[in-house]
Amino acid sequence: MGKRVLVVGAVALGSKAACRLKRLEPDAEVLLIDQDEHISYGGCGIPYYVSGDVADASELQSTSFHMLRDERFFKDCKDIDVLTRTRVTAINRKGKTIDIVRQDGSKDSLAYDKLVIGTGSRVRDLAINGQNLKGIFSVGSLRDAIAIKSTIAAGQAGTAVVVGGGFIGLEMAEALADMWGIETTVVEIADQIMPGFVGPEMAHMAQQHMEGQGVSFRLGERVIRFEGEDGTVARVVTDKESLEADLVIIAAGIVPNGELAADAGLEVGWNGGIVVDAHMRTTDPDIYAGGDCVLVANALTGKPGYYPLGSLSNRQGRVIGDNLAGKESVSPPVVGSFVVKLFETCLCGAGLTLKRALEEGFDAVSVRMCQLDRAHFYPTKELMYLELVVDRKTRQILGIQGSGSKGDATVGRINAVAALLPRKPVVEDISNMEFAYSPPFSSAMDIVNALGNVADNLLDGRMHPIGCEEFAEKWEAIQKGDICLIDCRARADAKVYEEKYPAFWKGIPQDELLQRLDELPEGKPLVLICNTGVRSYEAQLNLRAKGHTDNVTVFGGVAMLKHWGMDI
């Protein structure tokens, strides 16, 4: 018999590590231990089970060839023993044993040669008065998902409040509103949804889209208590209002389950996550850890960060399996790539937001743009919206975020840049990045290349732009006539706005601008706008070449303003 390996936690990380080890070292004795009855399931699929997109919970626990990944599957197909409904209470490093308690209360001590910790995470405890009322759920396990869906299917929820505007909160809000028609409100303590993951413009665009689908939002509000009737939740009280609710989903972030490691004397970090090296080893060389319970290095800052992502857990599990079998493998620093589906659109990104980059000490700036996701002459095409974060001094690319209705196309662009981020690419690398081109799939100058070019123009001082929020701030001054707005589109496009706003909206097509300079008002700043920002930038160059420097161009033009939610 080979080495004895115990794996604590049998969802993503633990299952992958165990299976990889057995493939490389078939004579290893491997035991998976989990305190739940459900193991090796796709936790990221939970919102889609709740929505009904995934019909049965067993599908989240099944292989692609429809085998249920339960105790029997692991024993018969993988030669891996499994203990479910069993809690590990202590790690005794000196004696190399763990203490366990089974569901029936019986206790035991198990010896190991190597130990893997994959204890995952749990929903943050908000410690709010009334949070134990019936009808209040978190989304921490498959068992939670089954309970939520059972409540909804029983017709017990007409109104719902989701606490938290991050990944899980937004996905659950979509599931409740879209498939079940539940009147849904998201309460987020920050001033935007997806705080820390996207900038305010992208967040506002996503929020506008969800509001169009019937989801309400309360930003900058803190839940202070839950109130109920007959032991069941009826209201969510914030610091600003009271919201009716038959169902409450708490999705206000997660924290790593690092206590078992900490109690054993292993090093944990700033949020209680387990500290590991590139090989996924803890501070004890015989103990590995990975997944949602660990901290790993960020590729851009070098600092330990927390990235509870199912894809990362699976990759780390393979690395751990390699190292257990003596095959030296490392898990590289991460950039934190993500995507979330929001009805007919998606929100995705990788690397640092502008706010985070500034907090980390970079001299950062961001550029935004929109462009068609394929050739302009191809009959089926949609606008895609991207934001790129760059460092002024070094021109290094620090992050990218995107939104688009063709989710696969948008995610593909984000993934391409994400793959480069650990190598510290600069603007020119993005401008010249090679993309496969055909009109049904992209433009000859892909939107990512164009985004790099926009960054180049900004950093070199050729472009002087404003974003959606800055335009909104100038809107009153524009209406008063203190700022002159020049629409650089073709006459037919500008005519609608000129007729609506005859006092201040003036159309001068970019190709006529140099011949009509005498029509520009003297002594007034100009805001130049077109449909997506290309012609207004050209107009800006034309004007500055003639000495007219008091002007700005609008990132993404009218299209981005509309997507952002400004009613013009």
TrEMBL record:
Cofactor dependency: FAD
UniProt-recorded name of the protein: FAD-dependent oxidoreductase
Pfam families recorded: Pyr_redox_2, Pyr_redox_dim, Rhodanese
Domain Rhodanese: 479-565
Keyword annotations: FAD, Flavoprotein, Oxidoreductase, Redox-active center
Coiled-coil intervals, chain numbering: none
Upper lineage: Bacteria, Pseudomonadati, Thermodesulfobacteriota, Desulfobacteria, Desulfobacterales
Top-rank taxon: Bacteria
Family (UniProt): Belongs to the class-III pyridine nucleotide-disulfide oxidoreductase family.
